[in-house]
């Protein structure tokens, strides 16, 4: 009963677009079939109008509580192709082999793993990993990329961190 799109279409588009925030449907449609449809399409809760403000607030608190609890169980592992990074233990594995990384190497790989297949400029990497805007002639980034490549490519593993001359670096692998 909304203009242009109905609630079902909005809900479907949000969920199809990967939106995972808690969604509470407020609607005048009170049939059991309508409520089931809303929940099946991805609503986390369904409240029929008219409703008491206290009930709405209690349902919102419950959704927020559930969302917070579920985030505690979210995986703290990043995976890209055959590289697995455990953010809790700060361990990195490639094809099951543990790779020992320094703090800065870990942070650099973490940035790449958070942005797979995305070209990261030298300035962006310097700011995110080293925490400052550095436009000097230092080759610290190149040195760390070389060390990270050496460790991740050990044993003949294919290169994952690619250099795009004049643009920056990208984590993309060969496939």
Q: Indicate the structural class.
A: alpha+beta
- Number of DSSP helices? 6
Report low-confidence residues grouped into runs of 5 or more.
none
Task: Please tell me what the overall shape is.
Answer: elongated
Strand arrangement, major sheet? 3-4-5-6
Number of strands: 8
> What proportion strand?
15-25%
* Biggest pleated sheet: 4 strands, antiparallel
The portion of residues assigned to helices is: 40-55%
Order of helices and strands: HEHEHEEEEHHHEE
What Rg, in angstroms, do the CA atoms define?
23 Å
Distance between the termini: 47 Å
The average pLDDT is 86
List the topology elements.
Layout: H1 7-16, E1 24-27, H2 32-40, E2 45-48, H3 53-72, E3 77-80, E4 83-86, E5 91-94, E6 97-99, H4 103-114, H5 122-130, H6 140-152, E7 161-164, E8 168-171
Parallel strand pairs: 1-2
Antiparallel strand pairs: 3-4, 4-5, 5-6, 7-8
Helix pairs in contact: 4-5, 4-6
How would you portray this structure in words?
By secondary structure, this protein is α+β, with helices and mostly antiparallel strands. The chain is 42% helix and 18% strand. It has 6 helices and 8 strands. It has helices spanning 7-16, 32-40, 53-72, 103-114, 122-130, 140-152, and strands at residues 24-27, 45-48, 77-80, 83-86, 91-94, 97-99, 161-164, 168-171. Strand 1 (24-27), helix 2 and strand 2 (45-48) form a beta-alpha-beta unit. Helix 4 (103-114) packs across helix 5. The N and C termini lie far apart (47 Å). The mean pLDDT is 86.
